[in-house]
TrEMBL record, chain A:
Lineage start: Bacteria, Bacillati, Bacillota, Bacilli, Bacillales
Keyword Secreted found: no
Statement: the UniProt record of this protein carries the keyword Cytoplasm: no
Source organism (scientific name): Cohnella silvisoli
Keywords: 2Fe-2S, Iron, Iron-sulfur, Metal-binding
Cofactor(s) required, per the database record: [2Fe-2S] cluster
InterPro entries: MocE_2FeS, Rieske_2Fe-2S, Rieske_2Fe-2S_sf
Coiled coil ranges: none
Signal peptide as annotated in the record: none
Name of the featured protein: MocE family 2Fe-2S type ferredoxin
TrEMBL record, chain B:
Transmembrane segments: 56-88
CDD domains assigned: Rhizopine-oxygenase-like
Native species: Cohnella silvisoli
tRNA processing is among the record's keywords: no
Protein name: Fatty acid desaturase family protein
Superkingdom of the organism of origin: Bacteria
InterPro entries cross-referenced by the UniProt entry: FA_desaturase_dom, Fatty_acid_desaturase, Rhizopine-oxygenase-like
Record domain Fatty acid desaturase: where: 75-316
Transmembrane among keywords: yes
Pfam families named among the record's database cross-references: FA_desaturase
Amino acid sequence: MPDLEGWIETCAVDDIDEEDVIRFDYGDRTFALYRTEDSEYYATDGYCTHEKFHLADGLVMGNTIECPKHNGRFDYTTGEAKRAPVCVRLQTYPVKIQAGKLFVKIG
Amino acid sequence: MSTDTNKRDYRLTGPESKIALEKGLVAAEWYISLVPRKRLKELMKRRNGPAIRDTILWFCALAGTGFLACWTWGTWWAIPAFALYGIVYSSPADSRWHECGHGTAFKTPWMNEVVYQIASFMSLRPATPWRWSHTRHHTDTIIVGRDPEIVAPRPPVWRIILMDFFRLYGGPKDIRRMIMHCFGKLDEEEREYIPRSEFSKACWESRVYVLLFIGIISWCIVTKSFLPAMLIGLPSFYGAFLVLVFGMTQHLGLNEDVLDHRLNTRTIYMNPIFRFLYWNMNYHIEHHMFPMIPYHALPALHEEMKDDCPPPCRSLWSAIKEVVTALVRQGKDPTYTIERTLPATARPYGFGNDDKTTGGVTYAGS
């Protein structure tokens, strides 16, 4: 359950490798959680905005996530669509770390 | 489940599109072989080195064969020389168009885009429309009524296949579309897969292509020679032979309307020269299942996946024999489909629909 401010606990920070992404499902929603090379964390919607494919199966390159199906790219730190076939930006969510856990504000 | 006693309608604007949607075949979830994420990440890694090396080699081969062709111009030796130049022009243009369209050939995005634009022009595939056509091909691979890149229907139309050995069917179709784009119009099929936001880009690209063609024609007129067109433009036609041969081996004879690339796609072992021309797209099951793996890592991906896939064809020749035999049989029985047995180590095929042969459609004569 989200707390009163809408934060939910997702995973331990070490569950995500550096420069990688994992999938996090919550209810009927799915999210992608990212860790940069410098161990900064980000969260976005889990599906590509072009077609319904999990971004967590894709490739993280710097601040970019590439969709595994059609190679569309987003800047996951801002949600900006960077390469066709994606044209619509990706929803991003605030994150925070508490006691080694990654929290995402989905509310 | 729909039943159609006539030939299937392969148009994207026909009734098959709706049928595919009703059967859950549109933008569906496809079977994926199990490859550990750690290994996939290694294979997905982008590099500039292999594509820069191969692009330099390609342009050197073009310059060399082009020089030979010019040198022999006016003699009978020009025929084999231009045949060679045409193959070196067209086949890599097609494979570079393809791989750079995926954005995986080079690590640096602008390099992919530059080679993509050059190869698109050389292969007479307008960059934006074909980018979106190929996107659809990957979403709905060999789903009838959805995939714009099905090479031959069932039963096959041999006239079109034979014409396309010299791009005489697909080429004029692309030129007609380019001319339409110059006037700001896209045809009905293109509107099915190109988003509205990309229409203007498609139109401007075609205007540039047409200007370049006008430039080449003008150059021919000024020099009173076909030579300029034989070097730029016409090779897309007279050099297309191998493009079609490679293209025919990708999916023909295999299943339609399934959700498992092991059922509708063919992997072939090829010699290093063909693999250079084709940029490893002979590993086609691997490419379709994992489009984010660059061409240079496909042989390694094949090693990871082969125990979960049907045995590859042993050569291009054996693949062509398999395809032509299947097409001849489909001429008499459009339901004929090559069946390939999986190794004992593989997980079962995922057909993705109830009817394991025809996707629930009855063909004429079946």
